[in-house]
Amino acid sequence: MGFNCGIVGLPNVGKSTLFNAITAAGAEAANYPFCTIDPNVGVVAVPDARIDALVKMYQPPKTVPTTIEFVDIAGLVKGASKGEGLGNQFLSHIRDVDAIAHVVRCFDDSNVIHVDGSVNPKRDIEVIEAELIFKDLDTIEKKIFEAERRAKTGDKKYKAEHDFYLRVKEHLLGGRLARYVSLHDEDESLWFRDMHLLTGKPVMYICNVHEKDIMKENSYVALVREIASKENAKVVVVSAAVEAEVGELPQEERAAFLEGLGLKESGLQQVIREGYDLLQLLTFFTAGPKEVHAWTVKCGAVAPTAAGVIHTDFEKGFIRAEIMKCDDLIRLGSEQAVKDAGLLHIEGKEYIVQDGDVVHFRFNV
């Protein structure tokens, strides 16, 4: 899997419409709050022209693209963390996601009710962030209670852990997101990761605009970009209505439809591209006559770590990696041609895997 992404936002921002369009999961969408009463999950294959070219070359019976899992959470409202609306019971479903896609309404339409009566991206973002902070405070209180008991043993490390949780609590009570907590050593990094705090996750803002604004920057989008720039967050501008139309078209007609609107890629492709960049991910391939498979790892991963994504035995018994560049393989047309051109490289344990590498791992267990 590439990564999993929790989709959050206020009711009637176009969240479920967008989810339907990009996952074809069939989540209900309606012009009233709380139409999503279960966390919908959709898994989407990552579009990648390179894997298509490799399949054409090898013609294997099996193709496995990398995928992204989207989890659509019921519309949150002010007070959700205290039981208002339906959002609170679903917040736990995004504890394990890699990133959060925060859908923000950036369009005016008197026919689509706004839960707070007006369109205001800054206020809407603050409402969602406040609810996530309140949920994180619940988590941290439990951690403080557990650590306090352990600290009574007199062990200095337990005392340090307890003090760390208190510091995170004070940070959150100041209205600041957990991802801005300063981590001073490996222990603090570990304690922080183990909490799975919602506001500690990377965020991508998805500005849902009217179809007529898809090619221009309206004032709402400009405001979201200003907020995102302070948070080092990503911004993707989409029209959920356009995405819904794209999703209904046959695959071969989609590019022409988007081109007619002046768009180079769909909203899904934008979300994937920005998501990979936000999380610092890359794709490598294994390819042969039996299977072409795309894999995802963190940027900076060394060859044995990448091998371990395929199977733990590959990492344990790693001997070497035979590396071809996907572009070279596609351009030259065969593995033999790549070898003849001197472009196949044998790499060891220190090799850092690059995006687009086609790898054959040698291992022994």
How is this structure best described in words?
With 365 residues, the chain is α/β, with parallel strands linked by helices. The protein is 42% helix and 20% strand. The chain has 14 helices and 12 strands. It has a 6-stranded mixed sheet, sandwiched between helices. Strands 3-9-8 form a 3-stranded mixed sheet, sandwiched between helices. Strand 8 and strand 9 form a beta hairpin. Helix 1 packs parallel to helix 8 and helix 2 crosses helix 13. The longest helix is centred in the middle third of the chain and has 31 residues. It is flat. It starts with a strand and ends with a strand.
Task: Give a short summary of the structure.
This protein has 365 residues and is of the alpha/beta class. The protein contains 14 helices and twelve strands.
Quick tags:
alpha/beta; three-stranded mixed β-sheet; 14 helices; 12 strands
Shape: flat
Q: Report the helical percentage.
A: 40-55%
> What's the pLDDT, averaged over the residues?
85
DSSP, total strands = 12
* Strand percent estimate: 15-25%
Structural class call reads alpha/beta
Number of helices: 14
Instruction: Please provide the ordered H/E string of secondary-structure elements.
Output: EHEHEEHEHHHEHEHHHEEHHEHHEE
Query: How would a textbook summarize the main sheet?
Result: 6 strands, mixed
The main sheet orders its strands as: 2-4-1-5-6-7
| Terminus-to-terminus distance | 25 Å
Uncertain runs are: 25-37
